[in-house]
Amino acid sequence: MQMLQLWTLAVLLGAVAGREVCYDRLGCFSDDSPYGGTLERPLKVLPWSPKLVNTRFLLYTNENPNNYQVITADASSIRGSNFKTNRKTHFVIHGFTDKGEDNWLSSICKNMFQVENANCICVDWKGGSRTGYTQATQNVQIVGAEIAYLVKALQSGFGYSPSNVHLIGHSLGSHVAGEAGKRLNGAIGRITGLDPAEPYFQNTPEVVRLDPSDAQFVDAIHTDSAPMIPNMGTRDFVACNHLRSYKYYTDSIVNPTGFAGFSCASYSDFTSDKCFPCPSGGCPQMGHYADRYSRKTSGVGQKFFLNTGDASNFARNEVCYNNLGCFSDTEPWAGTATRPLKLLPWSPEKINTRFLLYTNENPNAFQLLQPSDPSTIEASNFQVARKTRFIIHGFIDKGEESWVLDMCKNMFKVEEVNCICVDWKRGSQTTYTQAANNVRVVGAQLAHMLDVLMTNYSYSPSKVHLIGHSLGAHVAGEAGSRTPGLGRITGLDPVEANFEGTPEEVRLDPSDADFVDVIHTDAAPLIPFLGFGTNQMMGHIDFFPNGGQNMPGCKKNALSQIVDLDGIWSGTRDFVACNHLRSYKYYLESILNPDGFAAYPCTSYKDFESDKCFPCPVQGCPQMGHYADQFAGRTSEQPQKFFLNTGDAKNFARWRYRVSLTLSGRTVTGQVKVALFGSKGNTQQYDIFRGIMKPGATHASEFDAKLDVGTIEKVKFLWNNHVVNPSFPKVGAAKITVQKGEEQTKKEGSGNGEDRMA
């Protein structure tokens, strides 16, 4: 009966002569069929005037992401703004009762600025949307005409192509976009409809509603397509489904692979697992990246289904990539106390990991190796008879940093080797949390490269050494966990945040290679000390130079305590992150100093500094850095902790000695110093004792010399009391014993000033 009444009303109203209103610039608008007097649009209503609707264009750009600039179709207005003609332009158009200054519109813009340089124009037509629904649907025509007029002004005044324009409309805004597209004869590059409104549009002719002919590519996201029911409550409750469309779109911008849609006959078939996997042509990504789908315009009415999360992040919890496998945002990778945010790693294409080969034959210019094209390996200087060392940078860094290449060059001075710098800067130069998740893909790509070497060249993983700094240490761990029989991993101050305290599958751990050694240089807690490295032992051998927290020559100020994690390297890298960077500087220098970084087993740095851990045990001490794998006891069943001291600047290498003195002469107050002389040189003077010096008393002390003196030939013994004493009391050494930390033997002698050692 109700349908009959509506049909009767439509017939009666349709019989009334239509009206028309015309406006300068925009043209004429009618309330006649198909805009009024039809079953779908029974009421005959004219759109309001442009003045009443008051459409405004609020421009945000990468240069002004937080404060909009109001622009008009006037050329001077556009010239005076941050609008850039060499960028894409995205219009974001709200719907019924909304406004252009709502947070969701500017949030879409801000997310875009994270991934591209763009002009983002929020279309504010609240003057025409905040009225009765029927009137608002008619005002759609005015707003669409205003957008079309602005695009034409850009085209005529600035040579700006409509194909560079993307209209994103929510609800009634979808049909606003459709109206603008029609007026530009479908020349618009793309229109995205975010849950296009049903009442007054569904089943209407194409001229009234959004339609595939309105742009070169039209995609729509449907989130509230159940039959219309009365609106009975507040917006976020009753309209939750409707609003999800723009929330999904917002999230999709920073999740380019998180919304894959699967071609399927129905959602029932989709949930029955009848539509997996993606066909050979791939799956489109719902949202911002839908236009990358190769078959996007192969036919009208292509239907795709997917599931989302129930709250931000909405991106689905797994992505899969050829040759690399699948990656999840479920525990232990996300949703935990250590990793609260649910993020998926970026795609291999976006991270764009590169393998840069340097060898003894090409020490200055790299050769690019591509796992997808083995001919690049065949044509390179890669030698299967040599060891291969991969150097992996960390957060914010890049594979072409000078320290990475310097490490290769130092290696070439002592060995013939394939040195491959892993460049994943596109995946590391982003927010820290995203970079930490990208680690998984980079590690998988590295493992794939090792698989290619093993498959094509029978190259054994046992000949491979992965050296990773910061996040790069965990990249190495990921690669190692995927590569049975990997020879060695060296972690250079593995980063703490998002990794410390996680299960072994998430972080670097001893099972990732036959031998794993770790150097800790910034192991103080992240909060409040801003220590970027982990204190957790992650190797067979863990070295803690200078105690592992505060490196000589590095100082932090109050500013470094308040810099947020994602901004730590911005202009203050070498200052704020000095401790963190020391790890690779120590390793770099260790290559040319095979005995200059001897480390001592000890319970704590306090015991080490209290001279309780000298000399090396019978089995010897490991050398921190390049030669750690030469230590006979390197793979004990229990984790091993070692301590040493370094210099405060180049050269960092130090050699530890212990000197013991038994005094002779008179009782005096003063200080005793010694200097060592040997076959390779002599040391500076080092303090042995300060205080009351009694005959027969023995005093001992350990110190770290700047050089290895070689075979000890003599010891220079000095004392003074800084007091004028006319009796000139004499103090001598009844016995002097000198021992180098790595040696079990001791040198002994005696004398009053200089003594030859036996």
TrEMBL record:
<dbReference type="GO" id="GO:0004465">
    <property type="term" value="F:lipoprotein lipase activity"/>
</dbReference>
<keyword id="KW-0106">Calcium</keyword>
<dbReference type="GO" id="GO:0016042">
    <property type="term" value="P:lipid catabolic process"/>
</dbReference>
<dbReference type="InterPro" id="IPR001024">
    <property type="entry name" value="PLAT/LH2_dom"/>
</dbReference>
<comment type="similarity">
    <text>Belongs to the AB hydrolase superfamily. Lipase family.</text>
</comment>
<dbReference type="Pfam" id="PF01477">
    <property type="entry name" value="PLAT"/>
</dbReference>
<dbReference type="Pfam" id="PF00151">
    <property type="entry name" value="Lipase"/>
</dbReference>
<dbReference type="GO" id="GO:0046872">
    <property type="term" value="F:metal ion binding"/>
</dbReference>
<dbReference type="GO" id="GO:0005576">
    <property type="term" value="C:extracellular region"/>
</dbReference>
<keyword id="KW-0732">Signal</keyword>
<dbReference type="InterPro" id="IPR036392">
    <property type="entry name" value="PLAT/LH2_dom_sf"/>
</dbReference>
<dbReference type="InterPro" id="IPR029058">
    <property type="entry name" value="AB_hydrolase_fold"/>
</dbReference>
<keyword id="KW-0964">Secreted</keyword>
<keyword id="KW-1015">Disulfide bond</keyword>
<feature type="signal peptide">
    <location>
        <begin position="1"/>
        <end position="18"/>
    </location>
</feature>
<dbReference type="InterPro" id="IPR033906">
    <property type="entry name" value="Lipase_N"/>
</dbReference>
<feature type="region of interest" description="Disordered">
    <location>
        <begin position="739"/>
        <end position="758"/>
    </location>
</feature>
<keyword id="KW-0479">Metal-binding</keyword>
<dbReference type="InterPro" id="IPR002331">
    <property type="entry name" value="Lipase_panc"/>
</dbReference>
<feature type="domain" description="PLAT">
    <location>
        <begin position="655"/>
        <end position="758"/>
    </location>
</feature>
<feature type="compositionally biased region" description="Basic and acidic residues">
    <location>
        <begin position="740"/>
        <end position="758"/>
    </location>
</feature>
<protein>
    <recommendedName>
        <fullName>Triacylglycerol lipase</fullName>
        <ecNumber>3.1.1.3</ecNumber>
    </recommendedName>
</protein>
<dbReference type="InterPro" id="IPR013818">
    <property type="entry name" value="Lipase"/>
</dbReference>
<dbReference type="InterPro" id="IPR000734">
    <property type="entry name" value="TAG_lipase"/>
</dbReference>
<keyword id="KW-0442">Lipid degradation</keyword>
<keyword id="KW-0443">Lipid metabolism</keyword>
